[in-house]
Prior knowledge:
The structure holds two protein chains of two kinds. By secondary structure, chain A is mainly β. Chain A contains no helices and eleven strands. In chain A, the strands form two sheets. In chain A, strands 2, 4, 5, 9, 10 and 11 form a six-stranded mixed beta sheet that branches. In chain A, strands 1-3-8-7-6 form a five-stranded antiparallel beta sheet, with no helix packed on it. In chain B, strands 2, 4, 5, 6, 9, 10 and 11 form a seven-stranded mixed beta sheet that branches. A four-stranded antiparallel beta sheet of chain B has the order 1-3-8-7, with no helix packed on it. The mean pLDDT of chain B is 94. The A-B interface holds A 32, 34, 36, 38, 42-46, 49, 86, 88, 90, 92, 96-102, 104-105 and B 33, 40-45, 48, 50, 55-56, 90, 97-108.
Amino acid sequence: QKEVEQNSGPLSVPEGAIASLNCTYSDRGSQSFFWYRQYSGKSPELIMFIYSNGDKEDGRFTAQLNKASQYVSLLIRDSQPSDSATYLCAVIVGGATNKLIFGTGTLLAVQP
Amino acid sequence: DTAVSQTPKYLVTQMGNDKSIKCEQNLGHDTMYWYKQDSKKFLKIMFSYNNKELIINETVPNRFSPKSPDKAHLNLHINSLELGDSAVYFCASSQDQGATYGYTFGSGTRLTVV
């Protein structure tokens, strides 16, 4: 089982709709969760991080965490064509040293 | 003012050559990383240094050798390049080993081995 799993997509939504991106992780001990956005040919850019169960909102973005179900999601309200990108879920995995493990990303396409 | 900068941005080279990628961060972070992103966009950690000390060394061929002269710089040298080394290599940094606030990535180096 992969440590962080995402549906590769593409997820296609019309402009103005809510885009829902999902991620599951395997390490029950993980405490920190991140969403990155990566435009084609660019580097990953941090959008949000979440540590506690529940919702965390930042502008049009809401991250949701359910540690019991080992599930993280990202909602994008009022989706814009400029939101079209690959969204990477990442989880801190501990051990001797913490490291950020990424999912394979979900490609989001917002249709004008 | 670029936070994490990598050079070169593009690198095209022949099989068997040796090449280096340089990375510098001006964020005052303690920890730096090298990640490889393959053609399927999967980002995989290769190495991590904390204040010049190697702390993560994933299963990477020993043709890859990182070096950190100080905590603001992390370079990657690759010997005897192979076709399978073609990928985008990202440098990243975090405040500390805990990476509580995630990483800041550099712009990437697209390596093409022909």
